[in-house]
Design a protein that fits this description.
Elements: E1 10-13, H1 19-30, E2 34-38, H2 43-57, E3 61-64, H3 71-85, E4 90-93, H4 108-136, E5 139-144, H5 157-176, E6 182-189, H6 195-208, H7 212-223, H8 232-243, E7 254-257
Parallel strand pairs: 1-2, 1-4, 2-3, 4-5, 5-6, 6-7
Helix pairs in contact: 1-8, 3-4, 4-5, 6-7
Length: 264
């Protein structure tokens, strides 16, 4: 283990039972942070996951199953974190869902759910975490936006709207706390091979009659010049940087890690 720069801090990572959220939670735990996990999945598997990570890195871990579309459940999760660990020092808003359809065909209930989970949940967690961070004069809010917080893609109106909104929300939160030790930044990944993206790969393979590997290459070739997926481990390392003293004056950025997608 390195110097464990986050020893004694507590991080709450939404949507952290798999994919990007899990990668970030592991990276923060490696640096000594206690972790509050959140997300869906098999209860026994989740218990094993957070117990194993706690033992591996010598940190305290806990789990709350708040539905991130429900403000009352978000409030219960934040209260749980306060009771268990005395508050949240690092808040990672990562929970997200996706649906692909043209605007005229987009189900209204899907639009509402995507905006609630991908955008509004970050408002609720932030408003509840900020007073404690401000009292300590130290805090980190990291919003997982997307390259779709910077550019658009056809068929993803709700997701793109939510992620652009999250980038804007990040900037305002950063500005409101600019004279404090609390920072807020957004990470904007390109294609990451998460369960959400794997489903898009599977759908493409089935639709176009190609192998899964061919479907992955086709997906990457459209948008991501590097031809490689971003990894949860790379995103975790960036989150650790945002939490380090080197990032004290990194405020309100939308940092894309996207294999060159937004550079085109």
């Amino acid at each position: 283990m390195q110097s464990a720069i986050l020893r004694g801090k507590t991080a709450l990572v939404t949507g952290s039972t798999s994919g990007i959220g899990l990668g970030i939670a592991r990276a923060l735990a490696e640096q000594g942070a206690n972790i509050v996990f959140n997300g869906f999945g098999d209860a026994q598997q989740i218990e094993k996951l957070y117990t194993d990570i706690g033992q591996e890195f010598g940190v305290r871990t806990a789990y709350h199953n708040a539905d991130m579309s429900r403000p009352d459940q978000i409030e219960a999760m934040m209260a749980f974190a306060s009771d268990k660990f005395g508050g949240v020092d690092i808040l990672v808003n990562n929970a997200g869902i996706q649906h692909v359809a043209k605007v005229e065909d987009f189900p209204a209930e899907k639009w509402d759910a995507i905006l609630a989970i991908n955008l509004t949940s970050a408002f609720h967690t932030s408003r509840l975490a900020l007073p404690g961070m401000q009292r300590k004069n130290w805090g980190r809010i990291i919003n997982l936006a997307s390259v779709h917080g910077l550019v658009g893609s056809a068929g993803k109106s709700a997701y793109v709207a939510a992620k652009h909104g999250l980038v804007g929300f990040t900037k305002v939160t950063a500005l409101e706390n600019a004279h404090t030790g609390v920072t807020c930044n957004a990470i904007c990944p390109g294609w990451v091979l998460t369960p959400l993206v794997q489903k898009q790969v599977d759908d493409r393979a089935a639709r176009d009659g190609m192998s899964n590997e061919q479907a992955k290459k086709a997906l990457l070739s459209e948008k991501q010049p590097s031809g490689e997926f971003v990894t949860p481990e790379e995103l975790g390392a960036l989150a650790v940087f945002f939490c380090s003293p080197a990032a004290d004056q990194v405020r309100g950025v939308a940092w894309n890690m996207d294999g060159g997608w937004a550079a085109q």
